[in-house]
Structure formats: C-alpha cells, structure tokens
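tool_log.txt
---
The assistant was asked to compare two proteins side by side. It first ran the structure predictor on the initial sequence, then on the second. Raw inputs and outputs are pasted verbatim so the downstream comparison step can read them without reformatting.
(1)
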Amino acid sequence: MDRKMYQPTARQERNWAREASRIVEMPSDEEFKDRWAKYHHGKVNGWGMGKRDWVLSNMTRTREYQMGLWQGRVDAARGLDYSEERDENTYNLGYQRGYLDYDSNRRGWDRATRERFDAAYVND
C-alpha cells in the first residue's frame, strides 16, 4: 500500500493550538525540587520521575506530537512498517504511541469515527 499523509481537521487544529498555549517553560531543577518537596511533605525523593512526567505532559500538548500520533495510526491501519523519519523527538514519540496503540485506540472510537477514518485513510 502507498503511504497517505494525515490531514488534521479544522477542529483538531483549533484544539491543538489551544493546548499549545498551555505549554509553560520548564523550571530549573532547583525550582522543580522545591515544588516537589512542597507537595510531598518536604521529601525530594522521586522529583526526577516527576520532572519526566512533566516533560511528557508538555510534549503531548504540541502539534508535532499530535501529527505523529495520527500519522502512526494511519500507517498502522494501512499495514505499513514502523518508521521514524524525523529527527524530532516529540513527533517520534507521538508516532510510536499512535502506531503501537492503534488497535487499542481504535476499539475506543465510535462507529462514525471509525468509518470516517477508514474512508479517508484505509479504503482506496
């Protein structure tokens, strides 16, 4: 099968722009440790995992992540091999999650969403 590129809807573009506006600049390690201690009764143990989660949360709010997520779903649906064609970590993370979790995610879609997706990207 030939590769089709995912085309986001106008509604997705609006939602992604709104989410991107919620991205905040990463605090320094010391600031992050102070915040972590405040919410964990003065303990700083685990702040690195908290920072990791914070970074991932910000990455998932970007347009690049969302484009990678949907392109991964399209490629998985079309039976194409997994590929990371960009140097951008955010896009590749989305692509990996979209590709590997496609079957699971698809079961969560309603019938209309599955039909629209199949008509646009699976059925030739």
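(2)
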Amino acid sequence: MSDAASAMRRHGSQMDAAVQFAQTELSEEERKQLGARLTASFNEAQAAWDAYRQHLIQHGFDIR
C-alpha cells in the first residue's frame, strides 16, 4: 500500500509542478520533457495501484 500511495503522491507533485510550469513560457523541448515526466509518473502510479489492487483481490477483497 505504501508503494502505491508514494507513487500517487509523486504523480500529484508532478501534476502540481506541470500546472505551474504551464503558466510560464516553455520551449517546445521543455514541454515535451514535462509531458514525458508526467507520463512516467502516471504509469508508475498506475502500476503500483494495479499491484496493490491484485494484492487486495488475493486477500478476498472485491475491488472492481
């Protein structure tokens, strides 16, 4: 659970930073890098959540 929670917090922090950066003038390269970081943090959070969800299912919880 802590892995999933940490990954979701990291993604949330990345999203907060992206919102702040989006309000400034970024170069195309900076925007691409920011998008890549957001995608990576989302994928990490999703994978951690999926692993935790499978763990809960193995313990009999009905998580849909």
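---
observation on (2): Residues 6 and 46 are 12 Å apart (CA to CA). Helices lie at 2-22, 28-58.
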